[in-house]
Each structure stands twice: as structure tokens, then as C-alpha cells.
Amino acid sequence: MASSSSSSRPGWDYDVFLSFRGEDTRKNFTDYLFTALQKAGIRTFRDDDELRIGEEISLQLPKAIQESKISILVFSKGYASSTWCLDELEKILDCRHATGQIVIPVFYDIAPSDIRKQTGSFAEAFDKHEERFKEEMEKVQKWRKALVEAANLSWLDPHSIANGHESKLIQKIVEEVSSQLNTRFLSDDRPLIKRLKTTMISGGGLLDDAEEKQITNTAVREWLAEYKDAVYEADDFLDEIAYEALRQEVEAEAQTFRGQTPKWLIKLGDLQERLDYLVKPSEVRRRSVLTGLINRTGKEPSSPKRPTTSLVDERGVYGRDYDREAILKLLLSDDANEENPGVVPIVGMGGVGKTTLAQLVYNHRRVQEGFDLKAWVCVSEDFSVLKLTKMILEEMTFGMKIMLSGTSYLPPLKYGAQGMSMILVTTRNESVASVMRTVPTRHLKELTEDSCWSLFAKHAFRGENPSAHEELQEIDRAIARKCKGLPLAAVTLGGLLRTKRNVEEWEKLLESNLWDLRKDNILPALRLSYLYLQPHLKQCFAYCAIFPKDYKFKMDELVLLWMAEGFLVHSVDDEMERAGAECFDDLLSRSFFQQSSVYSSSFVMHDLMHDLATHVSGQFCFSSSLGENNSSKATRRTRHLSLVVDTIGGFSSTKLENIREAQHLRTFRTSPHHRIDASMLSCSTSKLKHLRYLDLSESDLVTLPEEVSALLNLQTLILKYCRQLDSLPDLGNLKHLRHLNLEGTKNRKVA
Fold first, then answer.
1. Phi, psi at 594, each rounded to 5°
2. In a domain, 313, yes or no
3. DSSP alpha helices (H): ranges in 618-695?
4. Same-domain check for residues 494 and 538
5. Are 649 and 623 in contact (CB under 8 A)?
6. If 0-12 CB within 10 Å is exposed, 13-18 middle and 19+ buried, where does residue 302 land?
7. β-pair partners for 727
8. One Pfam family for this entry, by name (predicted)?
9. Does position 354 have pLDDT exceeding 50, yes or no?
10. Which run of H or of E encompasses 585?
């Protein structure tokens, strides 16, 4: 006896009893049908070859028939030759009369009329039965009568398997069985759903180790991306079930999946099979792909919180006094002001402290006294002269000193008073500096070994004297040397080790083989800092790849995003908000975020940190401009999407080709100040049943498309400063919506 695994149903132990003549269909059609029923989560009984001998079968089969809700009769040319099958048939029809058991006949390469009239192979079989059972003709007549009754139950057209399309017939059978069972598939306590969720979790313990080993092992990197995608796909599947349940509730439909259950069950089986393959691979594949991966379940304590300030804390800057004075001299000297505006470039590699030096100068007392107005503008990699000029002119109109942090740009500004306008530019590109400069370029070198150690120690031993930890003194110097004079690396690693005082932990970090590995332009120190984060912090940080480079964000904004995506699991909103604030402070204290030098309540990510977030998030987060020259595209794996749209170009069908593959989005946000085409939005949102977060702030929308009301999983809808928005669709069906922001719209309300 064989059966698929599932829970018992009220009143019966099996969903289906599968009756067939073993010799001619056992190893082909019936076996495929049994497998398909299993895959659909239908508990099915069938008898095995071994149990056809002896009296045991006569005891088990009648009981199995009685305990099944549905019996499937697979009639083939050889069916009637088996007296055992004919006895089964008689028992099945008795149950049909007594208990209302559902009987589904399947005619495999035989017409119902051959069975009804007992012609062809059936006639030959009954000639033999009548010869054998001369003294028991009543038994033979019962078999004949049973066959006539079963043939009159004709369910499937015998021509449905013409041309060998057995798969189509099997699909129809599974659909009919599922429909008849009226499966309560949406319940979370269904064993198959539980199993899928368990499998999704079971591979999670390998992720930390895999994220480290994938740096040097291509096979592990491919496994990691495949596993994450499989978990996302499984989560999308569970999402679709919940979405359908909510849709039916909204539309007051019966809580069943009649006619749709097979689709879900078959997909569930496919997903389970994929995850099993990834998490429980064969021994050969395990040895070749997952060699040495270990489950890491230990947790790391949160970092202590630190206060923030709108100004640079000069006490936290080491080894830059000489550079600061040299820049101040260039900005304030009469020689530098011969051209208007004057341009002073600071050039250095990423992480060397160019922005920090610019902040020191920008906030210096002598600059405050020497210039009437100041502005700080970031130049993104997606460069536009018109866009940047507009940003600058929005800050002020004349008499300006401008701090430009980015890659390249000399704005066409001719409005400052002669000898009074200066531009300070930070860039990694020497050629950019040579084109822009009006005074010699200031090349920023790495910190000296002592200065780098002082910076590292300040963050690693915050509030404590490093000499109080004698056991760490040699190790901390060695780690500081590994930072290669880069302040960003020293600060980040110092923040990482702040809560660790165990010598073994410091030695493990010092001896990591990642120090000598430089791939994808990711600083080893930053990569190590990420790998040592707790899993939930890794997830929250990687998600930040959704922001464009140089994007200024607020803590509340990021926490709302994390909440909507389910990264912060708590029962009520205020608990989630507190958990989100703790995650934010943890990442801030480790320098994954930095406070904006312009707005005290805003934060930014260093370019190298953004590169790291983009690297670890893979294809799942996508932030892109829809400019004409941008060739990057979202993929099927993209779940979180942020668009920056040209002010002039807006959305166009050509540009939207970048995102057409992203059909499973959970986050959709656009950069402000841009035109949003309502028809485009309608087309996009109509397919996004997984969407949790939709931000269209500062767009020119007049009407929010009706399709938004069908986004039943939506938790956050932000329409801030959509000045022209004068109507909304009925949002009453959005049962999960917890945050609706209409600030600055004609509705003048925030919910």
C-alpha cells in the first residue's frame, strides 16, 4: 500500500482510492496520476504489487475504500481480466450507494460502450470468468452489472487522451478531484503549507556562512542567489493565497478555491520540490556546492546608541589639520578669487575622508564669516547639468559659496559678486578636477598609521581608555593597519568591535582571508563589517540599496519601509516602530549610515556603503534612473524598485522597458518632482498584488487610478505634496493599509 502524506479529513482517512488493473497501466498512466495527486496534496491510497499476495489485501482494501471520499476507476483494456479489480469495483459501488462516495471513472484508451456492453477485450475476459466460475454465475452477473453502472457514470470524454496527451487528462482529473474535495486550502494549519514554511526557514541557518563563502566560491554564490529567489517565490505564493482569500472576503465570495485549488496545489508542489532541492540536495551536489557550510544561529548584542549632531564633531577627526588649513587658505585667499566662481577640487580615493574634510571646512568659523550664503549639493552618478543647476538655484540666487560632493560638474553660475563666489568640489576622478579647477588640486592622502589607529580606537573603545585592555593592544594596532589609512574603514570596524571584548573575536577578524580579497570594488573592512551583522540587520541594510546614491532619507521613512516589508515582526505598530528605531541606531552606530551635513534630521549612505548594499542585495533591489542613456534593467527577481525620472523626460514607454520584467514588486517608489502618467501607473499596479509600499510623493497625478484599490496587500500609501491630486478611488478594501499620507494634497490630511 502507498499513500501521499497529508492530514486525515473528518470522516475519512483518504481523499482518493485509486483502483486500476496493475499490469497495463501501473508503470505509466496510473503512476503518473498517483504522483500528480500527491503533488497536489491529495491523500491517495493505491495497492502495491507486494500486497497482492495472501489474505492481508482482502482485509486492507475494503477498509481503504470505505475510508476514502473519492474513488477513481482507471478502466483500460485489461481491467476486466482481474477478478480482484472487479471485486474492488463492486465494493466501491456499494460505498457509493451507502455513503454517497464520489466515483470518478477514467477511460484509458477504451470507450465506455465497450465496458457497458462488455465487448472487445471485456468480452474475452468474461468468457474466461464464466468458464472459471460456472458454479458462481451470480458473482459474474454482479460484476457485469457493476461495469454497466460504472460506464454510465461517464465523466471524461474518452477522446480526451487522443494523440497521447495523457498529461492533459491527468490535469483534468486532479482539477476535478480538488474541486470535489472542496479543499480548505487557505488555512495556515494545512500540513503542506506548514511544510513549505518550515523548508523556507530551514535553509536560513546556512545564509550567514554562505554569504561569506560566496565571495570566493562561485557555486556557493549561485546557490545563495537561487535560494533567496526560491524563498521570495514561495513567499509570493503564500502571498497570492492570502490575497485571494482577502479578495473573496471583500467580494463576499464563498471561502473555497473551487476550480482554482489545483493551480495552487500544483504550484505548491513545484515550490516545495525546488526548495527541497536547494536545502536538501543530493550527496554529490552537497559535496560540490555546500561543502563546509555551517548553521550560524548565534546572535550578537546590539551596539550602544550614540547621540548625533548636525555639525561635524572635530574631536572625531584625526590627521586632517594640515589639509583643512590648506583648503581654507585656497578658499579665502585673494589669489583664489581672481576667477568667478573659483573652483577648489579635493581629490582622493573612496573612503579616504574627502566629504569629512569638506564638512570641516564648510562649518569652520572663518568660512562662516567670509561668505554670506552657503549651500551643499550632491552630484549623483546619473548626471544632468540642468537638474543640478536647478537644485543649486533653488537653494539661493547669488553671492554663494557652494560645496559640491560628487563626481563631476562646473555649474554655469555667473551671478556671484566678483571675487566672492567659490565652489569646493570633492571627487575621486583626477581628470574631473583638472577640467574644473581654478587653483591647484588638493590631493587627499590616506591617514598616517597613528592617526588611523586613533580613529579606530575612538570608535572601538568609545568612552574607555584603550590601554585598559592590554590583551587587545597589539591586535587593535594590527587591525588598524589593515584599514590602510582609510577613515571609513577605521570607523566602521571600530563600530563593529565596540561591543566585543573577547580576544578570540578580534583575532578571528584580524586573520580573516577577506582582507586580501578585493573584488567588486568593495572595501574588505566594509564587507567584514556587513558579515558580522545580525541577520535582521543584514536584511535591513541590504534593502537600503533601493535608495539612489546620495539620497537623503529620514529614520521614520526607512522604518516605514522596513515595516511594510515585514522586516520588523511585532504585534502592534508602536512596537515595530521601536524595533525599527533600534535597527536604525545599530546601523548608524556602525557607520552604515551617516548624518547629512545639510539637514540634521536626514541621513545618507557613503558611496562605498551604497556599493556594498547594492552588492549584497543582488537583483532583488533596483534603483535606477529612467534616463535615455541608462541601460540597466530590473529583472524577474526584482522585488523592490525605486525610480529616478528625468525632470523633462518623465515616464515614457521606451524608458519603462527598464522595469517591465519586475512583476512581483513589493516596493514601488519614485523620486519626487516628476511627472507620473496615470495610464502607466494603472498598467503597472494592476499586476502588483504583492505590493506593500507605494510612494508617489510630489508627482503631478490628478487622479489616483482605480487599480490601486485592488492592491489588497498594500500597507503604506504616500502621496505627499501631490498638489493636483483631487480624487481617490475607494480604499475601503485595503484591509492591511496602516499608513496613508495625504499631506500637502487637496485633501489636507494625514492618516
1. -130, 150
2. no
3. 678-685
4. yes
5. no
6. middle
7. 703
8. TIR
9. yes
10. helix 573-589
Helices (H), 251-371: 261-279, 283-289, 321-332, 354-362, 365-370
The single-letter DSSP state of residue 675 is -
Q: Which of 167, 166, 177 is nearest to 37 (CA)?
A: 177
**What pLDDT digit, counting tens, does each position of 106-116 carry?**
888 888 888 88
Report the SS3 class of residue 456.
Answer: helix
Name the helix (H) or strand (E) containing 18. Answer: strand 14-20
CB 324 within 8 A of CB 364: yes
Q: Is the pTM of this model over 0.70?
A: no
Q: What pLDDT does 646 receive?
A: 54
Cα angle at 576 between 575 and 579, to 5 degrees? Answer: 90
pLDDT winner (highest mean) among 213-222, 292-301, 688-697: 688-697
What type of residue is 580? G
* Residue whose cell numbers read 460506464: 151
243/30 Cα distance (integer angstroms): 35
474: exposed, middle or buried (C-beta count within 10 Å: 0-12, 13-18, 19+)? exposed
Domain boundary among 557, 587, 614: 614
Residues 6+ apart with CB under 8 A from 546: 561, 621, 622, 623, 640, 641, 642, 667, 669
Q: Can you give the three-state secondary structure of 179-240, one letter per residue?
A: HHHCCCCCCCCCHHHHHHHHHHHHCHHHHHHHHHHCCCCHHHHHHHHHHHHHHHHHHHHHHH
The boundaries of the domain holding residue 475 are 449-614
Tell me the range of 108-112, 163-167, 203-207, 560-564 where mean pLDDT is highest: 560-564
SS3 sequence of 368-428: HHHCCEEEEEECCCCCCHHHHHHHHHHHCCCCEEEEEECCCCCCCCCCCCCCCCEEEEEEC
348 in the same domain as 453:
no
pLDDT in tens, 498-553: 878 888 888 888 888 778 766 667 888 888 888 888 888 999 999 999 998 888 89
For residues 63 and 146, membership in a common domain is answered with: yes
For residues 690 and 593, membership in a common domain is answered with no
> 580 and 472 in one domain?
yes
Query: At which of 565, 580, 614 does a domain end?
Result: 614
